[in-house]
Specification:
The complex is a heterodimer of chains A (988) and B (88). With 988 residues, chain A is of the alpha+beta class. The chains are: A alpha+beta (988), B alpha+beta (88).
Amino acid sequence: MQRIFEVLFDQLDTLKTIDNPGLRPASSHLAELNKLPSYLLRHVFEGYSVNALQVMAQGRGMDPHRKRASLEQDLANHFYDVPPLKQALERLSPIAREGFYHIKRAGGLISLGNWRMQIESRYGKEDTDQAQAELVGGLLAFYGNRNPYGMGFSFQHKSELASCGGVGPQIYFWSHSKVLNLFKVSQEEEAKYLARDLPQTFKGAEPVPALAPGFDSLLADLVSTTRYFEQTQVKALVSGGPGKRDFTKINGGLSVKEPGDIKTVKKIEDLGRLYFLWTLLKETQLVSLKVPEEVFQANHAASEEFFNMPRYRQARLLAGAWLRSDFNEFKRIPSLKFYRTSYYESSIPDTSKNIQARRFVLGLLDYYRRQGSLRPGEWLDFSSMVRAIQDLDANFLINHDFSGGDPGTGAYYRYDYDPLYPIPGFYGEDYYAGFTSTLKTPAPAKVNYRLPGEIGAPLKLAEDFALVEGEWLAQVLGEPLSWLGLVELARDEKGRPQALRLTDLGFAALADQPSERELQQAAHLDQLAAHSPETTRALLVQPNFDVLVLAPLENLPLLRQVDRFASQTSMGDVALYHISKDSVLRGLRSGLRGSDIVQTLRENNRVPVASNVVQTIEDWSTEFDRLILHENTHLLETPDAATLDRLMSQPDVHRFVVRRLGSTFALVTGELAQPAFSSKAAKLQAKPPARSNAAPFPLYQDYQALRPGSVSLENTTLLKVQPDAGNPYLFYQLGQFADLETWDKTRLSATFRLSAAAGQRAQQNGLTYQGVAEFLNEVLPRPTSRNRYQADQIPPETALALKGWLGFYGPVQVEKVLAIRVGQAGQLVEIFGLEEFKPALLGWAGPNIALVKESHFEELAARLAELGMPILDAASPVIATPEIPAGIAEKPKKGRRTVSEETSAERERKAREREEAGRLERPDLLSRQVYPVSGSRSLRKEPELSAIMDLLDLMAGTGVEPAELERMLDDLEGDDGFLPVRPRRKKE
Amino acid sequence: MDLKKFNSSPTLEEAATWEGGPLIVHQNVTLLECASEAVLEEALSATPLKYAVVRRISPTVVLVDHGQVPELVKTLSKKGYEPRIVRS
């Protein structure tokens, strides 16, 4: 059985252990109440009136006519004494005994309001007051209140025996462990107390169950939804559910579709039954999330197991899944209007409270079934059921008090209700927070403030249990439990819940045994099968390839089988399928064989299957079986056919060999593929034996394990497979992009040469440099520890050759250029900033050197000469001629020219360069005067451009690239008052 | 088809062991089995299967590169040679 199925069945199995529904464990506050120190006990007694203290003292056999302080002191000193406690318990009246039983059942701490409500509903106010006075007077139970730090004992007034000195929902009735342990009730007594909580049989006219899709629809929809996940790749959203496109399509295939326009729904959580279906699939793991791919996948094994179960087991399993699910019935109660409130302030139950409440209700139904209060076909009164739940555990869904909670919970976040500035959803601590009910008419307020009718009225914790918890119960019975086919809910003409009953399936699922009806049906089918077996067969295969599945929900395993190779066209009392080539191929892809399909049809068809159907399916199957790909399999190779013949003749050969594939090859099982001998033997066989003596063990070669160091690079282009390290997969990988040079079969060693021709072949094979480099890095020796951070083991020469041969780099283009050099980088920037010179520029060899196309050089030289910047040949100071390339080929003249050879402009320029070079040693760019010193502030509008150019030249001399200069100028333009906007150059 | 044109592996069409040599268990291999020799030749010539053949072990059976299986299945299916996939 699937592990998850065991867990889900356990959910229902634990319900059987519930013999006392609503019994709560001892309160966590008992730890402090069990050992109150004397001074605190005195403080407890200070809260009671003198009359009350006198009665307490009399009960303890003390003199009551003394000073109050003495009474308090004596009562505190003998508070935990056992004999007087025993006597007090023996003196209790039957009503007081029942009252104390309820305190014990609630864990020793119960809201006084809840306790009084329980007892008053049975015995009336006077008897309740009497019981309360007996318990307090006998020092068996006390009043307390809660504060953020634990239990408190201070009230506005002195408490009497039958009335507490404080008011509000935070008043508790508490006891301590010593007296709780002393109090024993017999089984008969307990049964009598609990019998009062049994629901009443419905007395009115026979109720009509509300129409709701039942278990059959649920099964049909589970089949169609599971099929959708099997046949479609459904991606998961971040929220963990399927997207809108998918749930819309799933809804299209359901037998009962979602009401309203599903296209307006944004997420699956906002849907009703479809979301319920999804939570069941999730909890049962019939569909689960495949983590790295973030797609949903159907669990075939789980589906097969589930659909092969008897119906009562299916219902039981799905009920277990519902108990754990995050489906929120509370939010679907139609009479409640919800408000956005914080988690801490809201009374809306979260998932854990919902789960707790579902367990309580299902456990209660199971308890009533075992008690015999619920009988097959008998309707229970819905209102009495709500009252019973309220008596048994008013806190089962929403906390009416915090007796079971942690200290402080709910107390920090409470604030007073302000009728002038109301917070929607919050009406004070006596009310449910976060919602109102349209079933209750709002009462007129003192300040003439009234809530509109459609919003409904706030609901009181002490009064409106039926409108909140009762409505939740109706919702649970009317939707999830009805959808699961366990319960039927009847409503009156106004749509209000009236009565409920367990269905046959409900009784069977809770009892975990088949119902009478199921047993009768099975017996009937057995009888039919004995007389005429063909009538029990559920298929009708027609020659036009239509397949009818009769009574599909009673033949779910068969339906699932047909689902695999045929497409469903309709689903009802009969499921109609059609067999097509596509549907058969889908089945074959999922692992079915043609013979399996034909066998399924033949075994379940009422008449012999038409020959054209069988023939066509076999043809499609044969076509599909032309190629069979065995993944992750193992192959045995023998040196010669005779050896394999000998092996195949061994008696237990079928344990290891699947079948023979050729003269020297056989497909073997994983058992043979795993070395069974010791690691020492494995080491011995790792080296292939010499030719002379054959190996005692086979040689294992793993195709998916490439070992570092199995290949070495002998020189730039020669790869060597190390002796004993080779295997055919390694040779195949190398043979893709290198040529075999040498091959030593006995040592499994070879050498491969990298070459242009091999590279071309690799390119044809679709290999890239990245793929080859990745492979080589895997098989070449790992770098030494000193070079362990070296990413690439391929030497640069080899890498360059591989990149060239494998097409990583393209061909190198040759172009004739002339280099022109200037002293100031700004000069070249300005020259080539002009549109007319741009076509001549091929590139930059540095900030001061530009590469000019030879074809444009003559024109450039002439134009620059016109602009007063003649181009000088490095060899001779004359204007360059078009034959410059020849001149450039000459070796430049060495040494300095004499001063007389330099022009005056040249001398000035050199002087300026020297001066600038001197500044460069200690550049002080910030203090550079860009604005005239004597200028007024208005001069900032007119910066001295020559100074800026000087600055730029200076920066250019430091090696700043033209692009960087451009960027700096752009930055300067950012300051409005600093630099006027320059005409922008086109970016190249 | 001469597979040597596409790969220079020494074991492409030859045995990996020798007479008197050891038995070899090739682990974790991917094996393509064809219904007939003609089907294999057809698939080799019509599809990129020829680039993925690691070894030819019989006229109808070849070992293929396990790293290329998804693409290979896609291409074979596109050309009408959809293989049945058997996972061990």
